[in-house]
Amino acid sequence: MKLVIITGFLGSGKTTLLLALLKDLSSDGGRNLVVLENEVGEVGIDGAYLETHGLKVKELYSGCVCCQLAGSLVTTLSELREALDPECVFLETSGLANIQNIMGTMEKYCEVVGPDEILTIALLDIERSELIFEHDIPVIQNQVKMADVLALNKTDTGEAGEAETAAAELERMNPDAFVVPMSAAEGENLAPILDRLREWI
To answer: For 93, 151, 176, 201, which has the most beta carbons within 10 A of its beta carbon?
Structure first.
């Protein structure tokens, strides 16, 4: 069983990207994919929305999977493996998730998903890229540095040359990551991420 972690600061477009990716990946009906939503509050809005698109959704409430709910994440993944045996679980974290903590928990306690079976996609909103680059915001720095794929979202709203500048800065921050300028809402340039997922899953 593989695990895809989709993370990003509040409002970066995680759910929009998740829906776009899963719609394409499940279009042939031959994949067994499950969505695991981490809601910090007590009401899961995104999970209900995802279920309307025919996706299997499990929600973790009232905390973040990187700290208060770390044990729940490990238990839930084991339960999903036992009950549904999915090819891949897509975990959408809260905007404040510390990916390093999640990876540490998985490596130490999770028996159903190994470190080499986890792919992390971090979203950054181009509209706030200048703010992110100018200020050392620990949670965002952590998400960027731990990502396998850096999705620079909302490039359709940026000014000329802004995407190239922001992408270059992300490559500097994490030279090992695959940087993709894209627009989840418009469905622009999702193909490189989908190709990476198909090859990996």
So the answer is: 151
- Distance CA(173)–CA(169), nearest Å, equals 6
Please count the other Cβ atoms lying within 10 Å of the Cβ belonging to residue 160: 6
Average pLDDT over all residues of the chain: 83
DSSP class of 63: S
Residue tagged 């190709």 (tokens)? 195
Q: Does the pLDDT value for residue 68 go beyond 60?
A: no
H/E run at residue 122: strand 118-125
CATH number, position 80: 3.40.50.300
Could you tell me which residues come within 8 angstroms of residue 150 by beta carbon, excluding any fewer than 6 positions away?
A: 121, 122, 124, 144, 170, 174, 177, 178, 179, 180
- The helix (run of H) or strand (run of E) holding residue 51 is helix 45-51
Q: Of 88-92, 127-131, 173-177, which range is least confident?
A: 127-131
DSSP-derived 3-state class of residue 73: helix
What is the DSSP annotation of 134-174? HS--HHHHHHHHH-SEEEEE-GGGSPTTHHHHHHHHHHHH-
Cβ atoms of 46 and 17 within 8 Å: the answer is: no
Q: pLDDT of 138-148, one tens digit each?
A: 888 899 999 99
Of the candidates 94, 110, 109, the residue with the CA atom closest to the CA atom of residue 40: 94
Q: Which of 116, 198, 114, 130 is nearest to 163 (CA)?
A: 130
Q: Which of 141, 123, 138, 133 is nearest to 166 (CA)?
A: 133
